[in-house]
Amino acid sequence: MARYLAGRAAGVVLILFLVCLFTFVIFFTLSPDPAVMICGKTCTPERIDQIRDVLGLDEPFLAQFFGFLAGIFAGRDYGAGANLVHCAAPCLGYSFQTNQSVWDMVVERLPVSATVAVGAAVLWLFLGIVAGLLSAVKEGTWWDRAAMGLALGGSSVPNYVLALALQYVLVVQLQVLPFPQAVAFSDGPALWFQSYLMPWLVLATGYACLYARLTRANVIDTLAENFMRTARSKGLSPALTMRRHALRPALTPIATIFGMDFAALLGGALITETVFGLNGVGKMAADSIAKNDQPVIMAVTLLAAFFVVIGNVVVDLVYTRLDPRVRITAR
Amino acid sequence: MTVAAHSQQVAGAPATSGRRVAGALLHDRAAVLSSAFLALIVLMAICAPLISAITGHGPNDFDTAAVNTDLGGVPHGSLGGIGAEHPLGVEPQNGRDILARIAYGARVSLLIALAATALTTLLGVVLGMLAGFYQGWADQVICRVMDFLMAFPALIFMIAILSSLPQGNRSVLLVVVISVFGWPYLARVVRGQTMTLANREFVEAARASGASTGALVFKEILPNLRSSLIVMTTLAVPGYVGTEAGLSFLGVGVAPPTPSWGQMIASSVGWYAVDPMYFAIPGTFLFLTVLSLTVLGDRLRAAFDSGEAA
Amino acid sequence: MSELLVVEDLTVTFPTTRGPVDVVKDVSFTVGRDETVGIVGESGSGKSMTSLAIMGLLPRGATTRGSIRLDGTEVLGASARELRRLRGDRMSMIFQDPLSSLNPYYTVGLQIEELYRAHRGGSRAAAREVVTGALRQVGLPDPERRARHYPHQFSGGQRQRIMIAMALVCSPSLLIADEPTTALDVTVQAQILRLLADLRGQSGMGMVFITHDLAVISSIATRVLVMRRGEQVEYGTAEQVFAEPRHDYTRMLLDSIPRIDDPLDEVSA
Predict the structure, then answer these.
(1) What local confidence, expressed as pLDDT, does residue A81 receive?
(2) Which molecular-function annotation in GO is an example for this chain (chain C) (predicted)?
(3) B202 at the A interface (CB within 8 A)?
(4) Residue B167 pLDDT
(5) CATH assignment of B23-309?
(6) Is the CB of residue B67 less than 8 Å from the CB of residue B75?
(7) Residue A324: closest C-alpha in chain C
(8) Is the pLDDT at A112 greater than 80, yes or no?
(9) Chain-wide mean pLDDT for chain C?
(10) Rounded to whole angstroms, how far apart are CA atoms A308 and A264?
């Protein structure tokens, strides 16, 4: 077990290192000189040199890269003498645009993305699994056809189209919701709930449709298993047969898919957050990309990769608890 | 003796199964409707210049007469300027014809999606078969690369790359970037199937009878991957149509003034309250195209599956 | 003496796209207490459908005619609740593939325990005692510890022993064994056959033994029913059927059994 975890941890570190390196190489070679961008329009060559010096942009590639890595684990200093700025341990640098600490920006925005992700996940898990179960049990009936037709349609709507359509119907036409705006929980739970309702719905729709189809397929496959025939031949009640013998095998694979989807969302729902103006990590990513704010782009890429990789490990560990056939063996 | 008979049967299967699958699809109303809609879109894309010639509006021709400049450029008429002059209405402010832009946008969307699918399939099949057929270190390397690419926050990274690359030929860049992050999903399946096929008796029989590696791959393994490849590629196209539209929506796709559906929807964001048709029309085209492709892929899979069960 | 199981003119019909098809046609046989009846036939002969009809486990859409009486109780047309009370308690079934017939997600102990408690109730602790006893009875070593293991942790023969322990935990009066040894190694087959015969002898229950293998039937059954394409082609005591088969099909089946006294070249031909 300890050996397995050590192996997985090494894998996580390696992948994150590669993501860092890859992203760094791309920006080092491709993007325009950040010093020129930071400096702005009224700029002198001396000022550009100064900025380069402070940010260490005049150093060779490897020095810059390892400077960045060292910053994450040990913190780093920018500039020298009177201009010296110390950036404490999880240091992701400073935004070229706002001079804010990137780590602070991430910490500030992560709760918004988490709220979006958790709310949507609750919705889609509930809707998707219930609809899929009903369809599987009533396979071939009008309910099954209608639900699966809807699910196929729902998973084909791009979420920004759905976002616009929902806003038009709920806000402009029916006027049941206010115009979307960022609201903190402290501003009042009702208002907060209203402001997150549309993002949750938009994000949950596609996943709910996908999960409904997955659940249906898995349950139908499980119901045809030989062990279901055994369960029926034992004279168990239909409720127990369904709950114990069908649901667990049918839903276990969905748990792993859910883990991966949820982990990916924690790294920011880029389109949904942008459309609804929610100040989460996703919107931060979109903004930083639009303004070529490299330290922030690095941070969001790394953060998203971090969640995906950690999510992968968590899913594998949870799976060994869910399926007794899977046992941990060190590779 | 039985081995030879088996391989003959497998080799003979695709031809008849192709006809059977086509027959099954023809009897499926949803599949027929989807195909008809897709044919319409393809026709529209091909005939885009013809459509412009007939209506007299190119995709980038301004028509200030069609919009009300006093009201900030809202189109005249109730439904976003829909009328005899502009069958699908006009854009607010500049009055560009939406039908022409949809038709030209279809070219961009379909070309990018199809090209990305082709490139993804090529990469996925070649690398997946390499990994599955040779196993050993080739498999190790390819699997690590796939793990790495799948752990990558693809959307953020695609946007980041595309935004920092020179404007240049955006369509080609889009195809390359989408494919680089897309192939592992296909390769994973191809690898698994190749592995099982490589150990099946008819491939072993061919190998024992001295067939070259090339003959093994092209005559024994590839034909058996055909049905799953058809299904996977059909289901990949709607994904890429959506990805292209999404990237264009976020402003890193095809560069204006080249029209694209995603870009049209993006520019309608500020107008949805006063001119809902502006997002509804490209949104509907995008939705129906993705839906049709998904339905078709789904039915293809069902048709192939029922063939295997029989 | 009254028979344990009486099957009269059983017909099972399936709807297909080309109209209804009879998968079992007018089959009649009886099983006495303390007796084994063998049903023989190739795959698709309707032998498994006959057993599923007795258990009330036919797939959805299947319709039945005729009569199946267990100890005087009519099974065809019984309510779902009545059938549930019979299944697992008065009649049990074991299947061909013990691995896929056990749920991989639960310990074998729990899977036996839930059957016992569904019919007899009682505390889990009491049920666990019974489970241990049942596993010991089928010859599983260290039953207390092994009850906490999952199906994949057993060998094929052990799994079939577990299925038998499960089927017999409520001491049913009828056991249906549907090709119970087909998926097993030859040496294990003999062990399982002997176990089934021993347990049946000890408990005095009736057994329906379904197989495609006449050689197996000859060692275990007192009466034999031969089926082909849903129809019953031969029915009689094992001695009758083996000594003077009345039907060509039975004769063909008998001829296909390899015999020790056969010259070697004939076997390989």
Answers:
(1) 65
(2) ATP hydrolysis activity
(3) no
(4) 65
(5) 1.10.3720.10
(6) yes
(7) C105
(8) yes
(9) 87
(10) 5
Q: Does domain A102-322 have CATH number 3.30.429.10?
A: no
SS3 for C26? Answer: strand
B290 inside 8 A of chain A by CB? yes
C-beta separation of A96 from A218 below 8 A: no
Which residues on neighbouring strands pair with residue C36, listed in sequence order? C207
Tell the burial category of A155 from Cβ atoms under 10 Å away from its Cβ (0-12, 13-18, 19+).
buried
CA C106 to CA C117: how far, in whole Å?
A: 16
- C-alpha distance from B47 to closest chain A C-alpha (Å): 26
Per-position b or e across A272-308, b if 16+ CB within 10 A of its CB: bbbbbebbbbbbbbbbbbebbbbbbbbbbbbbbbbbb
Environment class of B217 (CB within 10 Å of its CB; exposed 0-12, middle 13-18, buried 19+): middle
Nearest to A164 by CA among B290, B250, B263, B273: B273
| 3-state per-residue secondary structure call for B20-84 | HHHHHHHCCHHHHHHHHHHHHHHHHHHCHHHHHHHHCCCCCCCCHHHEEHHHCCEECCCCCCCCC
Tokens of B221: 């393994």
Indicate the burial class of B207 (C-beta count within 10 angstroms; 0-12, 13-18, 19 or more).
middle
Q: Where are the domains of chain B?
A: 23-309
Closest C-alpha to B258, from B101, B135, B118: B101
Segment C51-68, tens digit of pLDDT = 999 998 888 888 899 999
- Burial of residue B103 (number of CB atoms within 10 Å: 0-12, 13-18, 19+): buried
Q: What tokens appear for C166 in the block? A: 């499960």
Quick one: closest CA in A to C95, which residue?
A230
Q: Which residues touch A23 (CB under 8 Å, ≥6 apart)?
A: A297, A298, A301, A302, B157, B160
pLDDT for A329: 56
d(CA B229, CA B120): 11
Question: Cα A317 to chain center, whole Å?
Answer: 20
Entry field: residues in chain B: 310
Give the pairing type, strands C91-94 and A76-78.
unpaired
Nearest Cα to Cα of residue B288 among B224, B218, B241 = B241
**Within an 8 Å CB–CB cutoff, is residue B287 touching chain A?**
yes
Amino acid at C243: A
pTM: predicted TM-score of the whole model, two decimal places: 0.84
pLDDT > 90? residue A212 = yes
Please give the pLDDT value at position B307: 66
Q: What angle do CA C176, C181, C186 make, to 5 degrees?
A: 160
| Option in C101, C104, C119 nearest A235 (CB) | C119
Interatomic CA distance for residues A294 and A57, integer angstroms: 12
Structure tokens at A230: 């055994």
Checking if the pLDDT of A227 tops 60, the result is yes
Contact (CB, 8 A) for B229 and B125 = yes
- Which residues from A are below 8 Å from C when comparing CB atoms? 225-227, 229-238, 240, 244-245, 248-249, 252, 323-325
B86 close to B152: Cβ distance less than 8 angstroms: no
H helices of C87-155, in order, are 98-101, 108-120, 124-137, 143-146
Report yes or no: B249 at the A interface, CB cutoff 8 Å: yes
Domain ranges of chain A: 2-87, 102-322
Domains of chain C: 3-97+174-268 (3.40.50.300)
Q: Is the pLDDT reported for residue B12 higher than 60?
A: no
Cross-strand partners of B74? B68
Minimum Cα–Cα distance from B150: chain A residue = A308
% of residues, chain C, pLDDT over 90 = 41
What would the mean pLDDT of B279-304 be, rounded to a whole number? 87
Residue C151 DSSP class:
G
Integer distance in angstroms from the first to the last C-alpha of chain C? 48
Is A161 close to B287, i.e. CB distance below 8 A? yes
